[in-house]
Design brief:
This protein has 9 helices and no strands. It is mostly helical and 163 residues long. The chain is globular and about 45 Å long. It starts with a helix and ends with a helix. Helix 6 (96-106) crosses helix 9 (137-162) and helix 8 (126-133) crosses helix 9. The chain has helices at 4-26, 29-45, 47-50, 56-73, 75-85, 96-106, 110-121, 126-133, 137-162. Keywords: DNA-binding, Sigma factor, Transcription, Transcription regulation. This is SigE family RNA polymerase sigma factor. GO terms for molecular function: DNA binding; sigma factor activity.
């Protein structure tokens, strides 16, 4: 019998962080929600094992990221179908600020984007980001520094273009 209460507590405590993380990686809220939902389903199916991991949330982030990447691969065919048949917009549009930040994040290298998402969005210390990304602490600090500098430049350029 799975530990229902333990899983429910884990879900409530991690769902927003995981959704935010995957959203930053994908730039698409609907895709992020789908990937996160699938990751939680897989976690539930293996909860007796996953719950004993040192960091079950890290396992879930890896699974959700892999699901999102897999979905990216089929994006082209879905985009073609949407062009042929149209897509109904059922999600309210994000704010202008959110769109600008997500667009800027998409232009960063993946390593910088992941480091920024883990550090700023999830609030993980640099040492944990290093452990999760399997990179030295110094490398993570450099990725964060370069990512911040690149974002500042990208966001400043868009501010100047509007003026």
């Amino acid at each position: 019998m799975p530990d229902v209460d333990g899983f429910d507590e884990f879900y409530r405590g991690s769902r927003q962080r995981l959704l935010g993380f995957v959203y930053v990686l994908t730039g698409n809220l609907a895709e992020a929600q789908d990937a996160v939902q699938e990751a939680y389903i897989r976690a539930w199916q293996r909860w007796s094992t996953v719950s004993r991991y040192d960091d079950p949330e890290a396992w879930l982030r890896v699974v959700a990221s892999r699901i999102a990447v897999s979905r990216w691969r089929s994006l082209r065919s879905r985009a073609r179908a949407y062009l042929r048949h149209g897509a109904e917009e059922s999600i309210p549009a994000p704010s202008t600020d959110t769109v600008e930040v997500v667009a800027a994040l998409r232009r960063l290298p993946e390593e910088q984007r992941v480091a920024i998402a883990l550090y700023y969005l999830l609030g993980m210390p640099v040492a944990e980001v290093a452990r999760e990304t399997d990179a030295p602490v110094g490398t993570v600090k450099a990725r964060l520094s370069r990512g911040r500098a690149a974002l500042a430049g990208l966001l400043a350029v868009s501010d100047l273009e509007e003026a």
